[in-house]
Amino acid sequence: MTQPICTSTTPNVTAPADTITLDETARHRRRAKLTSDGGIAFLLDLPKARLLRHGEGLLLDDGCVIEVRAAPEALMEVRGSDPRHLLALAWQIGNRHLPAQIGADRILIRRDHVIEEMLKGLGATVSHVEAPFDPEGGAYGDTHSDHHDHDGHGHMHHHHHHD
Predict the structure, then answer these.
(1) How far apart are CA 5 and CA 39, in angstroms?
(2) Phi, psi of 86 (to 5 degrees)
(3) Is the N end or the C end of the chain the one with fewer CB atoms within 10 Å?
C-alpha cells in the first residue's frame, strides 16, 4: 500500500498538507515515529520532550506542514461557587499534582472517581465532558507552558519524513 507523499517545495503555513490528531499523552513527546491523519509517516525528533499544542505546525524536511490537533478526551469540568472557591479547588487539585487546564471559570482534569468525590465534597460542581486537554506546565522546567500559541498562528517544528 502506497502512503501519501507530501511534495510541496516550500512551506505553506496557511494551508497544512495534513493534520495529526493526538490526545494529550501522545502529544507530549521528544522522539517518535508518527503518521498523520492522512497517512504521511514522519519522525518527530525534538531536542527535549514537550507538549505539542493544538494548532502548532510540524515542518517536514520537504517543506510540508502537518498541523497538530488535540483529540477530545474524557475529562471532568470543575466549577466553583465563586472565583475564591475555584481558586481553593485549584489548590486542592495542584496539591495532588494532577495535570489541569485552568480557565477563568473552570478547571479541566482527567476523569477520576476518587478525585471527583473529593471535589464534590468540597462543594465543587463537577461535570463529565469530552474536550481537548491542554494542561498547564510545571514550574521546574516542564515545557508544557513554554510554547503557547498567543498569536493564533502556531509554531513550527522541523521533522523528518520516515520511510
Answers:
(1) 8
(2) -65, -40
(3) N
Domains of the chain as residue ranges with CATH:
72-132 (3.30.70.790)
pLDDT at 69: 95
- Residues near 66 by beta carbon (within 8 Å), at least 6 away in sequence: 16, 17, 18, 19, 20, 36, 40, 42, 57, 58, 60, 159
The contacts of residue 113 (CB under 8 Å, 6+ apart) are: none
Measured distance between the N- and C-terminal CA atoms of the chain, rounded to whole angstroms: 13
Cell, residue 151: 498569536
Q: Are 138 and 103 in contact (CB under 8 A)?
A: no
Q: Chunked in runs of 10, what are the mean pLDDT values of the chain (163 residues)?
A: 44 76 93 95 91 91 92 97 98 96 97 98 98 81 39 44 48
- Give the three cell numbers for residue 113: 472517581
Q: Number of C-alpha atoms within 13 angstroms, CB side, residue 127?
A: 8
Look at the alpha carbons of 139, 140, 144, 148 in this order and tell me if their dihedral is positive or negative.
positive
